[in-house]
Design goal:
Blueprint lengths: L2 H14 L6 H13 L4 H4 L1 H12 L15 H16 L5 H13 L2
Helix pairs in contact: 1-2, 4-5, 5-6
């Protein structure tokens, strides 16, 4: 798992343990801890938008569906990934990435 995956897992743990009140706050705390405050990795919007998009649609355990992101593109990538994983749970991450990019480039 990559560092952004670890960030997402830590964000969920922060929500579950009541150390963060919202998914946005949880991502901010988790990304700061793992990347360092103000670093490029901590500020990167794509992984954050994907995570918040999944939260928004109720795909993240312990987080109610709601309005969490303005990042429509990153949310769409994450949701397409979920759709493809539901169809083929054994899909490897690089193949999933290629399929998501291919499908979204056709839209």
């Amino acid at each position: 798992m990559g560092k952004y995956g670890e960030t997402a897992l830590l964000a969920v743990k922060l929500i579950e343990s009541n150390q963060a009140a919202t998914p946005q706050e949880a991502w901010e705390k988790a990304s700061t801890k793992l990347f360092g405050a103000g670093t490029h990795g901590q500020r990167k919007g794509c992984p954050k938008g994907a995570f918040l998009g999944l939260c928004e649609e109720g795909f993240v355990r312990g987080i109610e569906a709601g309005n969490y992101t303005k990042s429509l593109d990153n949310k769409a990538y994450a949701l397409k990934g979920v759709e493809l994983l539901i169809k083929d749970p054994k899909c490897r991450s690089i193949m999933l990435y290629i399929q998501v990019i291919t499908v979204l480039s056709m839209l």
